[in-house]
Amino acid sequence: MPDPLRIDAGECTADEIITAIRDGRRVVVTTTILDAEHEVTLRYDGSVFYCDTPTRLHRHESEREMRACIRKMGYGAVEDA
Predict the structure, then answer these.
(1) Which InterPro entries match (predicted)?
(2) I need a surface site. Which of 11, 60, 64, 66 has the fewest CB within 10 A?
């Protein structure tokens, strides 16, 4: 398994994150929640996307759902419309 890609929230676009996880890499995002720094691991097992947060494991059945999560949670850079 390739080394995880470690980024700060907003450092990569959703496209870059999706490409990395589709290529088999885990993406570890450092983010600040309630004034504390946390790591969230984003991954894909070939059929389901996962967001492993400090408190929950979220499952996303489609790339569209995963992109929506990345945007909603601020893991990816804000992209121009």
Answers:
(1) DUF8001
(2) 64
